UniProtKB/TrEMBL annotation:
Source organism: Pirellulimonas nuda
PANTHER family referenced in this protein's UniProt entry, alphabetically: BLL2464 PROTEIN, DUF58 DOMAIN-CONTAINING PROTEIN
Domain DUF58 intervals: 66-277
Source taxon at top rank: Bacteria
Record's protein name: DUF58 domain-containing protein
Amino acid sequence: MPAPLDTRTTHAPGESAGAARGVNFVDAKTLMQIKNLQMRAKVIVEGFYAGIHRSPYHGISVEFSEYRQYVPGDDVRYVDWRLFARSDRYYVKRFEDETNVLCYLLVDTSRSMGFGAGDVTKHEYARTLAATMAYFLYLQRDAVGLAVFDEHILEYLLPRRRTGHLRRLMAALQREPQGTGTDLARPLEQIAKTVRKRGMVILISDLLAPVEVLATQLGYLRSRGHEVLVLRVLDPSESTFPFTNPRVFHDMESGKKSYIDPQEARKSYLDAFKEHATGLTKACNDLGVEFVDCPTDRPLELSLFDLLRARMLRSRTPSHNDRKARRGA
């Protein structure tokens, strides 16, 4: 049985401590003690709901649009009690993005995702992130699908809201990294071909693949009218290369082993890493794709804000084709 959950006030990398002051995030290492993935996701989502109104990020929440009559299962926090006092009827506030979203989660389980220099591997973080988003979207009455992939698509679940679907989705996320390389083209291409109704695609991967491949497939998705959120999951050591002593480095995907002196290799590695990251950012910006870095020490709750922001943009911005048409006019 996991130890009691300890929370600590923390902040995401790149953000000031003051920006997150007063918001309690569950420590990732503590979270991973919860073996049941759905329970882990529930803890994160409930913590997110509890903190959203006192959070400095509350301005990111969806905007009020209208009322609708209360139905069993609605969150009582959105009941308008003043309106109840006047009408003796229960009404809840509706929000601009309270629509049924068709959402696909694409989760990378290639061998490189098994890396972790700290307490949490990239794969453990990625599947917890996917489970959290699935649980959150399910509570919002959205249809959630899943594709788990490495070189091939290993699990493929169409978006559903039926009883038991969330349980099947959580079971599919339990798959351990077994493949070698990462083929981003295949799952993105399959989603683009099979999803006819416009929706949201959330790609969770370390993105250790050529930028050109990613740009081509994301462009295809955008041309079909889908909104895309890309979450790059990396171990912090991959972006900082903190190693000091010469050692044998093992490529987890190719199996190749190399003896490297970090003092000599650091500059070339960091230059290559920066070039790849810059290319990813530019490709996503050019395509109108939301791109977020998610190092494994980043509080998982923050990614739900990323999801809300992506949904807000989905309801407020024209499609990629509309923007291209306007530029060509």
